[in-house]
Structures are given as structure tokens and as C-alpha cells.
Write a structure and sequence with these properties.
two-stranded antiparallel ribbon; mainly alpha; about 75% helix
């Protein structure tokens, strides 16, 4: 079940979005290295062990990602996994590989790098522009020549060399701050929905889990 809160907290959204790119790079590097090495050496069985590590790592990382989404975006995502069958390891591995959630977890981490890159560029660009405009009345006097030239020092389209001239740009910066806040929350909310779609249970999986728990309760009652 996903939290009903639609508007993620601003501070958590900023931290979450800035974390996505480094985590995406880490996930991309891990998946590329281990999947390629595992697929290339599967014929000598070494690769089977590497691919098994990928499956376990992805499912474990997905649990941490659900916790990160909840901690920073206040969105709770249910675990989609059915309990593994008791018995031999072969049956347990078969259950992991047949579980669609394993492959959806893998898809999420494969997408985290490109999605995180877009989010990072948008957030840093908007906030850098906003803060630069808001602070222009203060810092322009410490720039070379005591003035701000846009877009280039050699060929300026406009020059700001007084506080009065900087104030309209600071007002524009306040508008950009409001837009940046809205953009930050919108990106975080969109990512939370992506995480819910890929890391949470589908309707069919919820029904399977409900049937599994009902069967387990009946067996316990019969055994009792």
C-alpha cells in the first residue's frame, strides 16, 4: 500500500533527487560489470554465481530503496515478494527468478542512472539560476570590474553595476525560486510514483499474496 500523501516534503525531495545520480551511476556500474561478466562466463558456471549475486543484490537494494523513498519522500511501498518455499535451494532460486518483482527491481535500477541524470540537471540548473538571481544585488560588486555582464564578459547583452539595476533581477530570482520549489516537488512526486510502480506489488501480486496468506492461515488452523 502506498501512502496517500501526494506532496512530498521539500527538504527530503531535494536530498532524494541529488542522491539519485550517484546512486544511479553506482547501480549502472554494478549491473554492467556483473551482468556482462556473468553472461560471458555462464558456460563455465562461474557466471551463474555472478548472476546469482546480481539477483540477491538487486532484491536487497530494492528493500533499501523502498526505505529511502519512505524516509525522504514519505511514500510507503509494500514489499511485493511472496515468502520463499521451504526446502531445497533450487526451489528457492526458481521462485526468485519466476517472481516478476525481481525483474521489476532490476528495471528500476537500470533506469535510475538516466532518470537521476535528468533530475540532477534540472534541479541544479533551476536552483543555481534562482540563487544567482536572488543574490545578484549582493555579489555583483565583487565580480571583476564591480559589475555583472550577461551572457559573456566580452560581448555583454546587459550589464548590472548598481543595486538598483540588480533589484529587478532579484525579483525575477524570487519567481524562479518558487518555480524551483514546485519543480523539485513535482520531480520527487513523479519519481515516487515510478518507484511505487516498479518496486511495489501489482494488483495481481496483491491477490496472490492474499491467497498465500489465507492458505497459510488455513494450514495453521488444520495443524492446530
Amino acid at each position: 500500500m502506498v501512502s496517500e500523501r501526494r506532496d512530498p516534503p521539500f527538504g527530503g525531495s531535494v536530498v532524494f533527487l541529488l542522491m539519485n545520480l550517484p546512486l544511479g551511476v553506482l547501480a549502472f556500474g554494478f549491473l554492467t560489470a556483473f551482468v556482462s561478466a556473468g553472461a560471458g562466463t555462464a558456460v563455465v558456471w562461474v557466471g551463474v554465481g555472478l548472476l546469482a549475486v546480481v539477483v540477491l543484490a538487486v532484491r536487497g537494494a530494492a528493500r533499501l530503496e523502498r526505505a529511502r523513498v519512505y524516509a525522504l519522500l514519505d511514500r510507503y511501498i509494500d514489499l511485493p515478494y511472496l515468502p520463499l518455499p521451504a526446502g531445497k535451494q533450487a526451489a528457492r532460486w526458481k521462485a526468485r527468478l519466476k517472481d516478476p518483482s525481481t525483474w521489476r527491481d532490476l528495471t528500476y535500477f537500470a533506469l535510475l542512472f538516466p532518470v537521476g541524470l535528468v533530475e540532477f540537471v534540472l534541479v541544479t540548473t533551476f536552483w543555481a539560476t534562482s540563487l544567482a538571481l536572488v543574490g545578484l544585488p549582493v555579489y555583483f560588486r565583487w565580480l571583476p570590474g564591480g559589475e555583472y555582464r550577461f551572457p559573456d564578459w566580452e560581448v555583454p547583452w546587459l550589464t548590472v553595476d548598481s543595486t538598483v539595476e540588480a533589484l529587478p533581477w532579484a525579483a525575477l530570482g524570487v519567481l524562479f525560486v518558487a518555480l524551483s520549489v514546485a519543480l523539485t516537488k513535482a520531480l520527487a512526486g513523479t519519481h515516487a510514483r515510478l518507484a511505487s510502480a516498479l518496486l511495489g506489488p501489482t494488483v495481481a501480486q496483491r491477490r496472490r499474496m492474499e491467497r498465500w496468506w489465507e492458505d497459510a492461515e488455513e494450514k495453521n488452523l488444520v495443524a492446530g
